[in-house]
TrEMBL record:
Database matches in Pfam families: LpoB
Signal peptide span: 1-21
InterPro entries attached to this UniProt entry: LpoB
UniProt name for this protein: Penicillin-binding protein activator LpoB
Gene3D superfamilies: ABC-type transport auxiliary lipoprotein component
Taxonomic source organism: Pendulispora albinea
Keyword annotations of the record: Signal
Lineage: Bacteria, Pseudomonadati, Myxococcota, Myxococcia, Myxococcales
Length: 205
């Protein structure tokens, strides 16, 4: 009888708090916390992989450098006349960070669109051009062919980059240093018009 009353009381509490928009643990279960209720949940590193804070820090450093670069000044003088494509960033690490690189790609593209100084080529169009260059429908991006992709798209410049690591281990510790490079490359000449590196270090101990 006591367990039935406890179950009923627990369900009533969950329903009441749920109606108020508060996430609570199920009776005896896990607690789910939203960042709006506890902003600190994004602060702690859960692994040596890249997380949201890492991405924002590295990307912000690179884009803040680009903001004041000579190529950005050139684009400002042309104001929308230059066309730019953003190509995938390469994973040169042993970590499975493809989803994080996709996030970086989207963030960089959004930043460029918001800047209003260039005309950005949609990534959907890029996929079509990659298929045309590679000669088959489900073609995979090939870094060796980025200049061809750019010419096919009519892009004057493209933004790309890569992430590499330096991984060190001892008996009880592991330290991973991530190096995030970004470049602006001129399609016609393949000249690097801007490049910057940001890095972060993560450790498990």
């Amino acid at each position: 009888m006591k367990s039935i009353r406890s179950t009923i009381a627990c369900l009533a509490s969950v329903l009441t708090l749920g109606a108020l928009g508060v996430l609570t643990p199920a009776c005896g279960g896990k607690e789910y916390v939203r960042d709006s209720h506890d902003p600190s949940i994004d602060n702690a590193a859960m692994s040596t992989g890249l997380d949201k804070d890492d991405i924002q820090r590295m990307l912000s450093e690179n884009l803040n450098n680009l903001r004041n670069a000579p190529i950005m000044d050139l684009w400002r003088t042309h104001r929308g006349a230059d066309t730019v494509a953003v190509f995938p960033f390469q994973n040169e690490t042993s970590e499975h960070i493809e989803s994080q690189l996709t996030t970086i790609l989207s963030e960089a593209e959004t930043w460029m669109v918001d800047s209003g100084v260039v005309t950005m080529i949609s990534r959907e169009r890029q996929n079509q051009m990659i298929a045309e260059v590679e000669g088959h429908r489900n073609a995979v991006f090939n870094p060796a062919h980025v200049a061809q992709y750019g010419r096919q798209l009519g892009a004057k410049y493209f933004i790309t980059g890569k992430v590499s690591t330096s991984d060190e281990r001892t008996d009880d510790k592991r330290r991973v240093q991530y190096f995030f490079y970004m470049q602006v490359i001129e399609v016609e000449t393949s000249a690097i018009r801007w490049q910057h590196k940001a890095y972060i270090t993560k450790m498990v101990r």
